[in-house]
Fold this protein.
Amino acid sequence: MSTDGVPARPPVRVLVVDDDPIVRSALSLMLGGQADLEVVGEAGDGREGVLLVDRLRPDIVLMDIRMPVLDGLEATRRLHRLPDPPRVIVLTTFDADEHVVEALAAGADGFLLKDTPPARIVEALRKVADGEPMLSPSVTRTLIDRLRALHAEPADDRAVRAQRRLAFLTDREREVALAVGRGMSNAEIARELHLSVPTVKAHVSRLFEKLAVTNRVQIAMCVHDAGLV
């Protein structure tokens, strides 16, 4: 029980999957110092990681991409097909656009670079545990550029189309969309706009419907195309 009378949430269970034992040890040591996070296991390749997920039932898997036996992308695909899959954050040295797109298509909930500051990795775990996807700023930029390339059209046409889509939003929804476009989390948006986090989540859900998108990256892409960020 917490000090305010609300039942304390059990620690988020984390499995670290990376073929470099030094990286695994560093991540486990860093995360082990957080009261709300618990490292329940380590694996040196994707196959071992999938087996440990079945045995340990972690909430989140920190997954490297390039590993022997089974790489992180295929391991993520296999985990995503489970009846009750854990959330997956891909943590890698490489931010090539094909890795970003493949990881998200495989079912990853986040994509971070290994040079991400420790505090940001901890923040990412907490956000993903709460149901928020987490992409590093450089990865978001890469993904937006890749999606634009896949749906190439003149920049002026993209801007006009994006502005028309945003025109159907209320003033508050537009504020939330702009904040999402700046890469802000729900909690950060709530603080800036003086709203509750559930209210922000409700606005984001309505943005999905009104903009006909399925994730926050696509909201950000629309805002960027409109020239507002």
Q: What stands out?
A: The two ends are 42 Å apart (CA to CA).
